[in-house]
Amino acid sequence: MKLKVNKDLCIGCGACQAVCPEVFEIEDDGLAGVIVDEIDEKVAEEAIDAKEGCPTSAIEEENDK
C-alpha cells in the first residue's frame, strides 16, 4: 500500500503524525508528508486510521497504473 498527502487539502493539523509517526510527518512547509515509499504491514492499520481520521481527507491511496 502506498499513501500520499494532497497538499492542496492538508491543513497541517498533525493528526496523521500523531496516529502513525512511522509513516507521516509535518514537513518544512507546515503540511503533512509521507516519509516511506511503501507502508509496512506492521503499521498498515495505523496508517489507515490516520487516513480515515484526516479532517480534510487529504490522505489518499496511490494506485499504481
N-to-C SSE string, H for helix and E for strand = EHEEHE
Please identify the structural class as seen in this structure. Answer: alpha+beta
Low-pLDDT residue intervals, each spanning 5 or more residues = none
Number of domains: 1
Q: What helical percentage do the residues reach? A: 10-25%
* SS elements, strand count: 4
Give the distance, in angstroms, between the N- and C-terminal Cα atoms: 13 Å
Number of helices: 2
CATH architecture: 2-Layer Sandwich
Question: Strand content of the residues, in percent?
Answer: 15-25%
CATH class: Alpha Beta
Provide the CATH topology: Alpha-Beta Plaits
Q: Overall mean pLDDT score?
A: 95
The spatial strand order of the largest sheet comes to: 1-4
Secondary structure layout:
Elements lengths: L2 E3 L9 H5 L4 E3 L5 E3 L9 H10 L5 E3 L4
Antiparallel strand pairs: 1-4, 2-3
Description:
It is a single chain. This protein has helices at residues 15-19, 44-53; strands spanning 3-5, 24-26, 32-34, 59-61. A two-stranded antiparallel sheet has the order 1-4. A two-stranded antiparallel sheet has the order 2-3. The protein is an alpha+beta fold and 65 residues long. The chain has two helices and four strands; from the N terminus they run E-H-E-E-H-E. The protein is globular, with a radius of gyration of 11 Å. The chain has one domain: Alpha-Beta Plaits (2-Layer Sandwich), CATH 3.30.70.
